[in-house]
Design brief:
Length: 649
């Protein structure tokens, strides 16, 4: 047996962390100025004078309809401010997330028809103008300034007051508690774009969408042209709330939260916005225990959803899991049980829920013994109550190796199959592998399709599929999906914002989300597209909270094809981190967990080796053998800092 001691040099290499702050997309202050001119039209001069890099110069728009489109370089949110030296005339501003909808005449859309009207300022005197409080814009990368008067207009300053994360100090928007860095830039960018997306969808609860278009659209769905929009509906209590999308809908949706909340926990730990959102749903629980499909004012439409009901139950468990606040759980427990009882009451004599509350994430065919709904139900039952009833439905896998949506169809959905694995409903390893191979076999150039929603790629459901691959150690497959779908397409495609994640698109890569009839309506900052952020921390960093807030934990890094990862985040108990390096013959791991906690470490052996020398600081190396899956386990480890080096034989 070789006996090795750690040398300072060996650990120094692992400690040499690349600073991660440079990846944070949140701004250092709330005053944002554009970084580039994207388009100019008509007679004008000095368009670049209003860029962030310039000072005290003036854009001059000479005539009616002269316009400049500015690029903020990333998706932003807020209210337009400008200073003019003109004392007459009028200016219009239009907004769009995607470059596809740049126009001096209209913004992209928040309604399911037409587009949104420009924000118009009549100039009565020189000086400072600001958008009214209810006319902030929830997300845009491009801002077009257009002269709407007959004569020349001069603008000598233009900025946007950033309104997302209203409860955080203006100089602390980059106040992350988590970080992720690896040798793969694509993964790093995806992690931080997920973090930023969840910040953009965290809003002042008095600035919810008034949904004023619903009347217009439902009374005449052929309405075209521009529609007015205003953000003046109070959707939750408190001073901040998590919503689904920054531009649209700006409402509380429990389904979206199921992806966003773990992402928030490992990045900003902004749990109060989650709590305010959940409270607003539980305030609307009905006497039978049913929770609403979405928060106020959408709940007024009376649409019911079995799956979103379950997601609202999962949300409470998730908040407790990360925050560990027992009094919060106590306060929700009676309502939680009533909600669980409502769900269990949907189970019929076959042992499966027969879904009649059929609204879901805009997939079709959510009814009967649906596999997605039943997998989520199984998962939810396992979360907290002793009401679990065993479901013998592994036999329903069809010839493709995938579950069918229900007994009367051959359609094999992405959502139900991903949930069947994620929930632990399928325990047979060869069947799990068969399901995930079959899902992977369907991946196209633009990502993982969801045939249960026609021609759609759903970043939401792909978040669950991704988690399923990671959960069963299909690490390289999961990383491939993140790189191809999230980085190469969802960030880098020129129609995207390169900073936040879109809600859905077609399998051919067109920015069309089939359930909607109006393409400009698609939200490009949707929390439900941020699945990789928490998955990278949980599986690649390997940091898993076992007990609430991490009182007990496990650190089980998945290597895939990576060589270097540095990940961490904090909960109410303190900071958890995992930093590792491998070159195929050595695996080094440094972990840090709060004092007073205990946990388990599953150290992967380098390069598929099964025997190695394990070195811990200040101890002689010992010869160790890997388990069947290539790991060496150390249990009952006390919280604190630990370093391990495994040198393969
Ligand atoms: C304004 O200019 C745009 C091009 O920037 C053009 O498409 C549009 O037709 C013009 N509108 C009017 C009313 O002239
Ligand atoms: C600007 O002035 C026009 C013409 O007087 C008027 O129709 C319009 O309502 C005004 N718009 C705003 C935002 O004040
Ligand atoms: C624009 O107006 C604001 C508010 O009055 C002022 O603080 C700012 O300095 C002005 N900008 C320029 C370039 O004068
Ligand atoms: C920074 O983040 C922490 C943890 O999320 C939060 O408690 C604190 O209020 C934030 N600080 C500011 C100034 O926003
Ligand atoms: C809808 O509005 C359009 C345009 O105003 C009109 O032509 C059409 O008749 C309306 N349809 C209905 C069903 O009211
Ligand atoms: C929101 O603004 C619109 C337009 O000004 C107004 O009609 C509506 O009453 C406002 N709603 C609330 C809740 O203030
Ligand atoms: C705010 O809290 C009060 C008291 O619990 C409740 O009645 C009200 O519905 C809440 N508002 C929202 C928008 O959830
Ligand atoms: C069964 O699944 C198919 C495919 O998703 C769907 O078309 C059908 O409506 C579903 N049945 C029910 C009762 O929802
Ligand atoms: C589900 O319940 C509905 C309404 O009671 C019923 O029509 C339908 O046949 C049931 N579906 C199954 C698969 O049992
Ligand atoms: C599930 O299947 C197992 C094995 O076939 C059987 O022992 C068990 O009774 C079944 N459970 C139910 C509820 O049908
Ligand atoms: C994945 O790896 C973990 C850690 O080694 C192990 O506990 C788990 O059983 C594995 N899952 C499968 C399906 O191999
Ligand atoms: C997206 O942003 C990154 C920096 O985060 C930059 O390196 C890359 O070139 C940008 N991609 C595109 C297509 O703009």
């Amino acid at each position: 047996m070789r006996v090795l001691y750690p040398t300072p040099l060996l650990f120094a290499t692992a400690v040499a962390a690349v600073p991660c702050q440079q990846y944070i997309l949140a701004p250092p202050s709330r005053n944002l100025r554009p970084v580039a001119v994207r388009l100019q039209s008509g007679s004008l001069s000095a368009a670049t004078d209003l860029l962030d890099s310039q000072v005290s110069l003036s854009l001059i728009l000479d005539t009616f309809n002269s316009s400049v489109t500015y690029d903020f370089g990333k998706n932003v949110a807020g209210s337009v401010n400008f200073n003019t030296t003109s004392n007459g005339g009028a200016l219009g501003f239009t907004f769009t997330e995607s470059s596809l909808w740049i126009s001096p005449e209209a913004s992209d859309a928040t309604a399911d028809a037409g587009s949104d009207a420009p924000l118009v300022f009549n100039l009565t005197a020189a000086g400072h103008y600001a958008a009214p409080i209810d006319r902030e814009r929830g997300a845009f990368r491009y801002l077009t300034v257009v002269n709407l008067g007959p004569g020349q207009v001069s603008i000598n300053d233009l900025w946007v007051h950033f309104t997302a994360m209203p409860h955080w100090r203006a100089d602390s928007l980059r106040n992350y508690t988590g970080w992720f860095h690896s040798n793969d830039e694509k993964l790093n960018r995806v992690w931080y774009a997920g973090a930023y997306t969840n910040q953009l969808v965290t809003i002042d609860p008095t600035r919810g969408d008034a949904l004023n278009y619903l009347n217009v659209i439902t009374s005449n769905s052929t309405v075209i042209g521009t529609l007015d929009w205003w953000l003046n509906t109070t959707i939750t209590n408190g001073t901040s709330t998590l919503t689904d999308g920054a531009k649209r809908d700006r409402l509380v949706w429990s389904g979206d939260m199921s992806i966003a909340v773990p992402g928030i926990a490992v990045t900003t730990f902004d749990l109060i916005s989650v709590q305010n959102a959940l409270d607003s749903l539980y305030n609307l629980q009905n006497a039978s225990g049913l929770l609403p499909y979405a928060g106020y004012p959408f709940n007024k439409l009376g649409i019911v959803s079995f799956t979103y009901h379950l997601y609202a139950l999962i949300g409470v468990e998730s908040l407790f899991h990360y925050g560990g606040d027992r009094s919060y759980l106590d306060g929700k427990w009676a309502q939680w049980k009533a909600g669980m009882e409502w769900a269990v009451a949907q189970i019929d004599d076959t042992g499966l829920a027969n879904v009649t509350a059929s609204a879901d994430w805009l997939r079709f065919g959510m009814g009967g013994h649906n596999i997605e709904a039943n997998s989520i139900l199984f998962y939810t039952l396992n979360l907290g109550v002793a009401l679990a009833r065993h479901q013998n439905d592994t036999a329903t896998a069809d010839h493709m190796g995938l579950f069918r949506d229900n007994e009367t169809t051959t359609l094999a959905p992405q959502d139900g199959n991903s949930w069947a694995v994620k929930s632990g409903l399928v325990t047979n390893v060869s069947q799990v592998v068969q399901i995930l191979n079959a899902l992977q076999g369907r991946w196209g150039q633009y990502g993982a399709p969801a045939p249960e929603a026609a021609d759609a790629v759903s970043p939401f459901i792909s978040g669950f599929e991704l988690e399923a691959h990671f959960a069963v150690n299909r690490t390289t497959a999961a990383l491939t999906l993140i790189r191809n779908m999230l980085a190469d397409f969802m960030l880098d495609d020129p129609r995207m914002t390169n900073s936040t994640f879109i809600e859905g698109y077609s399998t051919s890569g067109e920015l069309r989300y089939a359930p909607y009839t109006n393409d400009p309506r698609i939200s490009h900052a949707h929390g439900w597209g941020t699945g990789p952020t928490s998955s990278l921390t949980t599986y690649v960093g390997g940091i898993q909270l076992v007990g609430a807030a991490g009182a007990t934990w496990a650190i089980v890094p998945q290597v895939g094809d990576l060589t270097h990862v540095d990940a961490g985040f904090s909960t109410t108990l303190g900071r958890f981190s995992s930093k590792w390096f491998t070159n195929g013959s050595v695996f080094r791991l440094e972990i840090s967990t709060p004092k007073g906690t205990t946990g388990t470490v599953g150290i992967p052996f380098p390069g598929n080796r099964m025997t190695a020398t394990l070195i811990r600081a200040d101890r002689p190396g010992v010869h160790v053998t890997a388990d069947d899956l290539g790991r060496y386990w150390i249990t009952d480890l006390a919280g604190g800092d630990h370093q391990f080096v495994v040198v393969g034989w």
